[in-house]
């Protein structure tokens, strides 16, 4: 769990039911953390577009908060069509091909 008590740029959007916290990253970069109100996740996901994000920037103000974020990681391995063709794998790129075991695992 990452825990930090400090001053962060925070915005609350009543219309979409969402708090946005700008987390300092490297240099002058920041990473936004979107925190939807209870039951508002889909509404916030649908609102993630350029005009809404610009409107949130106008709402930001510095505020002292105790920020706690669970530790997590995201990873993916991607194989390009060109690389796999070099290995002789071409069928997986045919339209309509389904990998049943992977599909069942994901659903």
UniProtKB/TrEMBL annotation:
Pfam family, one: Serpin
Lineage: Eukaryota, Metazoa, Chordata, Craniata, Vertebrata
GO molecular function: serine-type endopeptidase inhibitor activity
Coiled coil: none
Organism whose genome encodes this protein: Hymenochirus boettgeri
UniProt xrefs under InterPro entries: Serpin_dom, Serpin_fam, Serpin_sf, Serpin_sf_1, Serpin_sf_2
Swiss-Prot/TrEMBL keywords: Glycoprotein, Protease inhibitor, Serine protease inhibitor, Signal
All copies of domain Serpin, residue ranges: 1-94
Name of the protein: Serpin domain-containing protein
The keyword Oxidoreductase belongs to this UniProt entry's keyword annotation: no
Record GO cellular component, one term: extracellular space
Record-stated family: Belongs to the serpin family.
């Amino acid at each position: 769990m990452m825990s930090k008590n400090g001053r962060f740029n925070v915005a609350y959007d009543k219309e979409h039911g969402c708090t946005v916290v700008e987390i300092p990253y490297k240099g002058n970069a920041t990473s936004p953390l979107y925190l939807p109100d209870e039951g508002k996740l889909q509404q916030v996901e649908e609102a993630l577009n350029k005009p809404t994000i610009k409107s949130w920037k106008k709402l930001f103000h510095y505020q002292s908060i105790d920020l706690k974020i669970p530790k997590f990681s995201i990873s993916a391995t991607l194989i390009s069509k060109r690389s796999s063709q070099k290995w002789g794998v071409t069928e997986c790129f045919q339209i309509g091909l389904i990998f049943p075991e992977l599909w069942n695992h994901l659903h």
